[in-house]
Amino acid sequence: MGIRRILTFPEPSLRGTARPVENITGETAKTVEDMALTMYAAPGIGLAAPQIGLDQRIIVLDVAPDDEEQGKEKGKHLIHVVNPIIVEADGEITFEEGCLSVVDFRAEVDRAARVLVRGWDVDQREIEIEADGLLAVALQHEIDHLEGTLFIDRLSKLKREMYVKRVKKALREGRPIAQRRAASETN
Predict the structure, then answer these.
(1) Residue 142 lies in a domain
(2) Which DSSP helix (H) or strand (E) runs through 24?
(3) Closest alpha carbon to 82 in 117, 34, 51
(4) Domain housing 55
(5) Which of 96, 99, 113, 183 has minimal Cβ neighbours within 10 Å of its Cβ?
(6) Which residues pair with 89 in a beta bridge?
(7) In 3-state terms, what secondary structure has residue 149?
(8) Which residues carry out catalysis?
(9) What is the average pLDDT across 46-74?
(10) 142-177 pLDDT, tens per residue?
(11) How many domains does one find in the chain?
């Protein structure tokens, strides 16, 4: 299928709890591939299956800096996790976050500074990822999507409501919330 359309707030399906993947199959691997293509095309550093309308607990991430990727094949630093869970979290870090589903908005969010995530890869092997810094933040952000939580839900009520009002006004006026890249619009 290739690059998918990324759903944006206030799409109701972004608010549901994704179901666990019961059997990892070739279709799961294809979904991971499509998610990675979509994430890179957007461009972004992470994507969860609910963001492309799939009710599955799958995330993909690539937090490698652009300068590290120059001259290298895209996907070299791709991480994918099926049925991820955070089994340990400690410390605290404040990081400015954005989201492919929350367009034209960034804000500082408090997260755990270090996490240990457990899940499966598409080859049906159990994996563990111990992360800190940007990778820890990105893992928590994407796993939140699997629970129907957006990063704006972690902001103060005032900051969240300012964004929600802006989106509702744009929708009422029939204006696009943001100009999406053409790659994000193809399905």
Answers:
(1) yes
(2) none
(3) 117
(4) 12-185
(5) 96
(6) 115
(7) coil
(8) 142
(9) 82
(10) 999 999 999 999 999 999 999 999 998 888 888 776
(11) 1
